[in-house]
Design a protein that fits this description.
By secondary structure, the protein is mainly alpha-helical. The chain is built from 5 helices and 2 strands, in the order H-E-H-H-H-E-H. The longest helix is centred in the middle third of the chain and has 54 residues.
Length: 180
Amino acid sequence: MHTQRRSRWTNRILIVVATVALLGWGLGAKNDKIVIGVVDLDQAITSTNEGRKAREEFERKKRQAEASLIPLMDQYKEQLEAFEAKKFVISDDARFQQQLDMAELQNRIENKRKEISGQLQVDRERLIAPLRNKLVKIVEEVGRDGGFSLILHRGAPGIMYTKEALDVTDRIIEKFNKQG
């Protein structure tokens, strides 16, 4: 397993190195200077004005979703306390029925958590996707207008280190906010 993981990383690194080498060779054929940039889209999204608004909206939705679980959790807590108080004085059948009721409530809570988690993922994507698409267009503009040969995504597989001087994230954020 460990060897497979190392092999996958090695393959990804080799692919990135080969891609950069091929691009460098192809671009070098024109005797043009090769200019490479790196952008952290996640940082750019959270640092833009619209990104901050989207994050605040997502956090609001998250709080609302979590608040919807409170009544179920309170109900479970009440049932558990009642069960603990009576478990030695009630019949085996009654004890068994209360345990089933609590298990059913636990399942409802877990299902509600999964539902909330899925909905939050959808909500997050609805808020972030338009920003990401706009940022990608801005990265293309900055690349074209700035004379870049290549702009890499910092989170891309195989990119383990880049010089800070190559980072164009601040440029992207600035341009995004100006267009906002």
